[in-house]
Amino acid sequence: MALKSTIYKAELNISDMDRGYYADHSLTIARHPSETDERMMMRVVAFAIHASERLAFGKGISDTEEPDFWEKDYTDAILLWGEVGQPDDRRLLKACGRAEKVVVYSFAHASSIWWKQINSRLDRAKNLCVKNIASETSQELAKMAQRTMQLQCTIQDGQIWMSAGDQSVQIDLEVFKEFG
Question: pLDDT digits over 73-120, tens only?
Fold first, then answer.
């Protein structure tokens, strides 16, 4: 018998002063049995960074045809395809062909090694952006994971802060590849 996803609920308050975006999102997060708290929280952080009215979680790990999160327009065209972790270059090139923009957030200790191995194969992908979050930071974020969460994300001058109760984590992004 297959294991079922665990459902998490998050009330996410976003204050993104860089984009002028202020909103509350009620998120239902299906955590696949093979997904860690760390990876799930990275999906939440990526969602907060790109939050919009039409941004949604994809099926992620359980479906190879969908990203971890995406934004589609009213014609179903994919404006943003978002991945968390270390996807292979073939998956990223396929995503770049399907979406206007593709963004990846890596977070493992070996992220720099992963990137060195695949970056030359992704040079032609002008609509791809790859950012890394230190594994120490992602592990701190994992400690915030609970079945029901009240989260606050503040973004100002490129600085990102995620808070839950008395816990707060500063998230610094290391750019591996920028759009263009």
Answer: 999 999 999 999 999 999 999 999 999 999 999 999 999 999 999 999
Q: How far is CA 163 from the centre of its chain?
A: 17
Closest CA to 56 of 34, 76, 32: 76
Bridge partners (DSSP) of residue 148 are 9
CA nearest neighbour of 12 among 171, 147, 164, 173? 164
Handedness of CA 62, 66, 35, 123 (dihedral sign): positive
Here the tokens at position 86 are: 């270390």
Could you tell me how far CA 164 lies from the centroid of its own chain? 18
The helix/strand count (H/E) of the chain reads as 4, 11
Short-list 101, 89, 107, CA closest to 55: 101
Q: Give, in order, the Cα–Cα distances in Å from 168 to each of 14, 19, 118.
A: 14, 22, 33
Give percent of the chain with pLDDT exceeding 70: 98
d(CA 98, CA 5): 27
Query: Given the structure tokens 């308050």, which residue do they identify?
Result: 13
Return phi, psi of residue 166, to 5°: -95, 0
Distance of CA 160 to the CA centre of its chain: 13
Contact 106, 133 (CB under 8 A): yes
